[in-house]
Design brief:
Helix content is about 70%, strand content about 0%. The chain contains nine helices and no strands.
């Protein structure tokens, strides 16, 4: 019991305490991503909510959960998850893209979206989407 309390005090996640490896977490996230791709948004959301509860340090899970919430028409929840993802992994371009997309769904936050998109426009993986979104944005936020 003392070992458990010590691990908790040191910031261990529930996933770590249960012996869930990073590979297992990645596999669960991949399953959720496949559910999203197939349009089973509620199933993906449920999987991802379980994943972030057990490992709140998983930026990919937070990023995917942000996407799920946006697709469910829950922009505030999507924005929250994107902000957590970026807080967990500030240099992750996927987290930054999720935040930018969430900002696009938030009235008056297009400027923030533009900054995030410009910052990742050169990324090899997310750059093409970031550049496309930048081109689609109006020259400045509508008044």
């Amino acid at each position: 019991m003392d070992d458990l309390m010590e691990a908790i005090e040191k910031g261990a996640t529930l996933a770590e305490l249960q012996g869930v490896t990073q590979e297992m977490g990645d596999a669960i996230a991949a399953l959720a991503e496949a559910e999203l791709a197939e349009g089973r948004i509620d199933a993906a959301r449920a999987i991802l909510e379980g994943l972030v509860v057990t490992n709140p340090k998983d930026a990919r899970a937070w990023t995917l959960l942000s996407r799920a919430h946006r697709r469910l028409g829950q922009p505030l929840a999507g924005r929250f998850c994107a902000e957590v993802a970026l807080n967990v992994a500030p240099s992750d371009p996927h987290a930054r893209l999720a935040r930018a997309e969430s900002c696009l769904a938030t009235p008056g936050a297009q400027g923030e979206a533009r900054e995030d998109l410009a910052a990742i426009a050169g990324d090899e993986v997310v750059g093409p989407r970031a550049r496309a979104l930048l081109l689609a944005l109006p020259a400045r936020d509508p008044a």
